[in-house]
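User: structure tokens for DUF2817 domain-containing protein, please.
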Amino acid sequence: MRVAAWTVVLALAGTPVAAHAAGGPPLRGEVIGRSVQDRPIRVVRVGDPDAPRKVLVVGCIHGTEPAGLAITRALRRVVPPDGVQLLVLDRINPDGCAAGTRGNARGVDLNRNFPRAWRPLGGVFDSGPRALSEPESRAARALIRRERPSVSIWYHQALNWVDLQPGSNLRLMRMYARVSGMRAAVTPPLPGTVVRWTAHTYPGRTAFVVELPAGRLSSAAVFRHRRAVLALASEL
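Assistant: Done. Predicted tokens:
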């Protein structure tokens, strides 16, 4: 498959992330919102800005589960298939990532804060006072509503499987599992998760969780997951 030659150039920390293509217009990372503690939430576009299909990849939603960041960093250097742009979002929960906590700065589990089947929960899975009470959740919802990604991949730890989300494309999810070398599993639906909300709100779109193993990923594992994202994108 022919692909355009796109190069991602990372700016200094704290400044926008820029990208450019030979002979094409410059691309820039976008601040899509701010956290409770006013940290920016940035998405980086990798690939043709006019691509009709998007793949959203989120490295870290729980600050205690950061292994996916190695994959999102690697995805900045790839060449997506024709017609596909990657939306690479390292941290939807920058406060939790900075503090090493599961929840955001108010202790809310962002993956229990989305509207689909939301209910009040306490403890470590605190779902917040209401659905979308948190600025980070609202930023994610706004991005998904605006971009309508064909596929959304959210990295978690540490169950070590690809979670087959009901309502999403089973073939694509199983492809990701096969290419990445992971097993696939079906787990009971949880209240207020972003993938459950996405699959319900946008029928025909695929959103799923990849539960990475505990600890840091090896370079070989990062390569397999990067390849799995591109293999999935090539099928859209």
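User: Anything notable?

Assistant: The CA atoms of residues 58 and 182 lie 18 Å apart.
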